[in-house]
Amino acid sequence: MRTIAVTGGSGKLGVWVVDDLLRQGYQVVSLDEKRSDKLRCKQLKVDLSDFGQVVGALHGSDAIIHLAAIPAPLGYTNDYIFSNNVRSTYHVLEAASVLGIDKVVTGSSESAYGFCWAKTPFSPNYVPVDELHPALPQECYGLSKIVGEQTAEMFHRRTGMRVYSLRFSMIVTPQEYSRSAISEPERYKRILWSYIDIRDAVQACIASLRSDDEGCHTLNITSNDTLSDWPTERLLSHFYPEITDRRQTFAGREAIVSNAGAKSILNWTPEFTWEQNK
């Protein structure tokens, strides 16, 4: 596996992923609607809604990291956000099937659970929130991510393709920590104070590429701790007293969204926290 295609290579996470892949000796091609002067790899301008363009752009790649998407239910009409995200994921996976590409990593989101953007706010059924928790979105973006995950499962059933759908929590760069509302826990209630350092998000993508597992997996990619200076038990008691199904006692600022699945399957663990950057 030498040539990796990265869709959305000009995006926030894509730039970091491409840079790390190049450092590790991979050949990389970025597929995006725009070029970036930050990238030192081959760049192709591709409309992922055009299946022919996708097949042509992916030809010659050994694996794919699919990060291109509208990243929130903002800035576009609902139908466009949904259709863009779903169609692009289908086209990437269908093209991989046609070209015989066996490994695809796709960027999903914890928004699939539905908490973040819900019109009518609701609480988790239980904590910690793992991948078995029901996905109950009330809007187009979270729904598009669920459909993307199910599309991956379909291709695995049909072809045996190995697909990893990574449910990233809020991705934070080192420069962004100084602007984070660490001491204002009400700000991050709806994302369950869940975050991931962009450097750890990159390593989750690369660990997925290198995994020998033959399955299709949806995995939470989140930090070991919360984006708050409050202890987790205090956060839950203050902001979510209605959650009675607590399946563990949380030590210190331990994360509410579980990353145990990714640790086990990918042999990955997050290394960076906001405390290291404050």
TrEMBL record:
Keyword terms: NAD, Oxidoreductase
Pfam family, any one: Epimerase
Gene Ontology molecular function: any one: oxidoreductase activity
Domain NAD-dependent epimerase/dehydratase: 4-215
InterPro entries found in the cross-reference section: Epimerase_deHydtase, NAD(P)-bd_dom_sf
Keyword Oxidoreductase: yes
Keyword NAD: yes
Domain of life of the source: Bacteria
Recorded family membership: Belongs to the NAD(P)-dependent epimerase/dehydratase family.
Protein name per its UniProtKB record: NAD(P)-dependent oxidoreductase
The species this protein was found in: Cohnella herbarum
